[in-house]
Amino acid sequence: MPELPEVEAVCRRLREEAQGATIRRLAIRRASICKPDNAEDISAAARNRKLRSIERRGKHILLGLSGGTTLYVHLRMTGNLYVIPDYRFAPVSARALFELPDNRAIVFDDPRALGKITLSARLEQLGVEPLTPAFTVEKLKEMISQSRQPAKTFLMDQRHIAGLGNIYAAEALFKAGQDPRKPIATKRAGAMYSSIVAVLADAVHSAYSTYSKPGHLLAAEEQKLMVYGREGEPCRVCGRAIRRIPQGGRSTYFCAGCQK
Ligand SMILES: [Zn+2]
After folding, report:
1. How far is CA 49 from the centre of its chain?
2. pLDDT digits (tens, 9 = 90+) for 27-45
3. Is the pTM of this model over 0.85?
4. 234 & 146 share domain
5. Is 150 one of the annotated active-site residues of the chain?
């Protein structure tokens, strides 16, 4: 599933390849991706509009069009958004095609068709963006002091930090040496902060390189992970077996030796 780094990589690549282009036509091949909005309305809103901006908020992609409309794209489980050289050769799993004047197209490719393109999204509850100057040690310390949640639950709560998902929350906790079951002590805010930023920045870099092959988004998650998905395997630092426990309906992977 694309997490913040993969969505960020998608945005950066799109900005390089398609920002400023005019959308000649938006062909929606699967109307259900637009629910609760209407596919025809979305097509009409995009037609002959310039793609002014491509921004990310949490895991949402915001396509800012001339005239003031914003389209909200969410990749969910298997979605991807990338430019192809010719709209006539789109993959069968293309659910929407933004045709550009030079016959290129931005394809919304989504084998499971669970992703979304809509005219609005609920972003107001999203917390701070971890890769912007708004995210600081002080900000994290303030949020930690107001919460008694276990560390993993705290990090996964989108009202605190936007876009941090199951993989990178587990990796950041390992890097900080933080037990996912215990609340984060305010004196450890600095270590937690640096770990979150480092893990995400590395992952953006890695996702961006992997993304040079359209459709290979999932490969970004195959980078060398320290704990995620490694239940029973030896910790790369201390050799103890990585444990997996349920937390908030999701699996948490951690090393009981390294994370206190
Ligand atoms: Zn360990």
Report:
1. 26
2. 999 999 999 999 999 999 9
3. yes
4. yes
5. no
